[in-house]
Amino acid sequence: MTEIRGEILQALRRAGDRFVxxxxxxxxxxISRTAVWKHIQxxxxxxxPIEAVRNRGYRLREEGEELRPEAIxxxxxxxxxxxxxxxxxTVDSTNRYAFAEAEGGxxxxxxxxxxxxxxxxxxxxxxxxxxxxxxxxxxxxxxPTFPVFRAPQLTLMAAVSVAEAIRERAGVSVGIxxxxxxxxxxxRKVCGxxxxxxxxxxxxxxxxLGIGINVFGREEDxxxxxxGVAGSLAQPGSPISRTALIQGLLxxxxxxxxxxxxEGFRAFREGWERLNVSLGRTIAVQTQxxxxxxxxxxxxxxxxxxxxxxxxxxxxxxxAEVIFDPGS
Length: 328
Ligand code: BTX
Hints:
GO molecular function: ATP binding; biotin--[biotin carboxyl-carrier protein] ligase activity; DNA binding; transferase activity
Distance between the termini: 34 Å
Keywords: ATP-binding, Biotin, DNA-binding, Ligase, Nucleotide-binding, Repressor, Transcription, Transcription regulation
Catalytic activity: biotin + L-lysyl-[protein] + ATP = N(6)-biotinyl-L-lysyl-[protein] + AMP + diphosphate + H(+)
Structural class: alpha+beta
DNA-binding region: 22-41
EC number: 6.3.4.15
Bound molecules: ligand BTX
């Protein structure tokens, strides 16, 4: 989003219910009314619900709101998650920030959100593109009592929780690509989950569960290398409130985390299978020991992926990158 577009959005947010005329915006930012209109159209294009009424001007509907802890907490049906919350304008990475806070004693459920990350991170040191106002960049501190070996499956559980919350609150059916990417129906990646852990011997001190969801953003708002690969939830004309989505996410995560603590991934396997788009396909898996091509057969109660190779051998994959339709 260009600077000026962000400023126009901010001006509309501050105006609340009031219409702001194109003339007023033009004067404030030293641009013509036509230029204002172009920026408004661009904002509408990425899914911001802006009404444009002749002779009155522009008004941002509620769903385009900025993130505020009080507003999020006011509609939160949780007792632990999100009860302590920090919302930042800019941060390097919410996971890095939450991790440091957890080391300093932040309680279970402590949640960090940022409008923008300058060094959002994915798995294996990969970057996560997190421009201002476009998404939900969120990290939650968990202090589970289960042993270290169960931590990876928590991320699989989270993929189910997030997918369900997106369906409930944003009306979009996303699919899970093993282990924890969420994809739009056309295959573009709309969400990534990164959990980072601090542990001593067999005991988990804490886990930071990081969730990145692209809410607003058109193809051209992504950097060239992500075009065609990444997508966003919002479509012009079907507004999505980030506040409502965060409330739904935290509610789901808390309920599912409770079940997970008692029953483990077993309780989520069916939900995962229902939402998954990986099984039954020919895939390439990139593991540390090289690439294997095979048929994704199933996942087990531990969340491992079982792949049948060309020679008919079944291999258990615990950690890898999955590439769909290799060679096609
Ligand atoms: P990942 O390693 O599976 O995904 C990273 C890869 O996804 C990148 O290499 C790139 O190809 C692609 N990618 C980067 N940015 C985006 C994007 N915005 N949308 C779609 N695809 C993208 C996934 O890692 C885990 C990401 C977690 C991000 C959250 S945001 C809040 C928290 N804080 C933080 O620093 N990370 C997490």
